[in-house]
Specification:
Number of domains: 2
Shape: elongated
Largest sheet: 5 strands, mixed
Strand content: 15-25%
Bound molecules: FE2/S2 (inorganic) cluster
CATH architecture of the largest domain: Roll
Structural class: alpha+beta
CATH class of the largest domain: Alpha Beta
Helix content: 25-40%
Number of helices: 8
Amino acid sequence: METTRAGASLKSAGEQAAAALAAMPRRPEVIRCPICKRQCLSFEELSEHYAAEHPDSVAPTAVTLNVNGLNCSLIIEPHLTLKQVLQLHLGLTGAKEMCDRGACGSCTVIMDGNPALSCNILASECEGRSIETIEMVAVMPKWRPLIDEYCKWDAMQCGYCTPGYLMAAKALLDRNPSPTEYEIREALSGNICICGTQPRHSQAILEAVSRMAKGETINA
Ligand code: FES
Ligand code: FES
């Protein structure tokens, strides 16, 4: 871990991702009514409380998501998107929200093996789904060449769109470990970078593919 001149510790992106994954709650510690804050012992008790005390309000819902390989049982507001639940309930802030309308790809996660726009999906409709996020990619040695090549080829400027690009790239490489440049461009066609880094993504991915094919996982 690096430190600043003032001695404060600086965590790398990988260390931050690992910390976020380790802190992910598997189930709510305390179940409280979001309206009156009454503590309930179970989701069933909360539902009964809602029906009795707040009959005109939309009751929270229970959902279990498999996030980065862990089953997480959550009680959520039914209007929350998957992006909001990842951030607000699980502390995973890697997926970014730029357009909030399914147009830019910056919120891309992988759901059941396919890229998915987390700003456009209700978390309550993801029961039992398998979700992968950028935090997992950031800590897996296998994907280190991909991240390294993004840095080397300057395929990011502000970096806001980068997690979405990397998840779209991972989804492609999971099903096709040696894509052509055309296939890469096609796989990234749902992602937009307003800093204008698009021309460098396919080069970065092609070089990462070549390094991964040699079994390289860690930057020397
Ligand atoms: S923030 Fe989800 S597609 Fe733009
Ligand atoms: S690097 Fe800034 S939006 Fe893509």
